[in-house]
Amino acid sequence: MTTTNSGKSWLTPLLTTWRERRAWVLEQQISIARTAAPTGNESERAAMLQQDWHDCGHAVEQDRAGNVITRIRPTSPAAAEGRPLVCLAHLDTVFDADQPLTVRHEGTRVHCPGIGDNGRGLAAMSVLARVLQHPEVRARLQRPIELVLTVGEEGEGNLRGATQWFDDASARGLTPVAAVAIDGPGDCTIVHHAVGSRRWRIAFTGVGGHSWANASTPNPVHAAGACIAAIARLADTSRPFSTVAVTRMHGGELITGVPTQAWIGVDMRSLDPARLRTLSDALERIVKRVVLDESAREPARALHYAITVLGNRPSGQIDDRHPLVLAAASATRAVGRVPQSASASTDANVPLARGIPAIAIGAGGTGSAAHTANEWYDDADSEIGLERAIRLIAALGTAETLSR
Ligand SMILES: [Zn+2]
User: Fold this and answer.
1) C-beta of residue 340 within 8 angstroms of C-beta of residue 322
2) Distance in Å, CA 114 to ligand 1 centroid
3) CATH assignment, 196-313
4) pLDDT tens track for 64-81
């Protein structure tokens, strides 16, 4: 990758501006976090950020999934025809619509569900929209940059927004040169391994009965329990490269009755798509065997089962010598941090699974307890990670080539 034309000198005044505007960035982050955006119901937050981009002079559109998109065009007509760089940040949070989004300050810490994941990434997109619009930047761009705020990244959203964007791009014959997902706080990690996952709901049903008079009736809760025990053994053998966990369980009706139903939720993850398939097959075998065993107690009243796939996220990776990873590492060093490879499940899974180079990075500050109501974000030194993101996107946008 050639990044020599992204030299410090022209970018320095912009970086200084955003170092000085960190209070504005935090304010933006807080107002984002206070606008509810449950997966599947992101429209209020989407409208707010669409307005923000519109106010700073961008043409903004929403696709049919609900993603908010703007395209930064280079001044040079030749560059404007090039393959785009795409930068994504997810709009949605794991919280329900009725989750209180109250903000509590404690020094540089801000407590609020979703404040870091992905309030921070979205605030960085507000900054990038302003930085990239600058004539100094547009004159140097070697390719268009698409900024995309995605819906449906979390949980059962299954990366719906990112998938839609890449589907539409490929329908237009467009293959982005690279993709960068901006997700949460952080200033040193570079996610270039995408953890794939499958999530299942396994339901057992039977006719039920009296716990004394119908004691031999096949019992869905017993089947669920046997299934959990077998999955726990599968979990032990699947590490370190894969994980399997029973994450939910529910069943039964009366303390005095053989139940009519039980179900469990299973979450499995791996970097290796083949391993995910093997584990999925093993899971199905376990369920079938357990149902047969339990039903053998009274075959005329056999149990039924239903396996539903709730989540399916693709996996993929690029190695740490890939030019995109090297560019991110060099932006990290430029702000005085030590780059760290990481694996995660983000919008970057979608391009990585399609062979498009992609990474995910944080947007500055630190945080913890993401995906819980106790999530907090610490703004101390947040300008460092934000500067890293700006440097990286500027470098990728202005590099003459992005190939190996
Ligand atoms: Zn996130």
Assistant:
1) no
2) 9
3) 3.30.70.360
4) 999 999 999 999 999 999
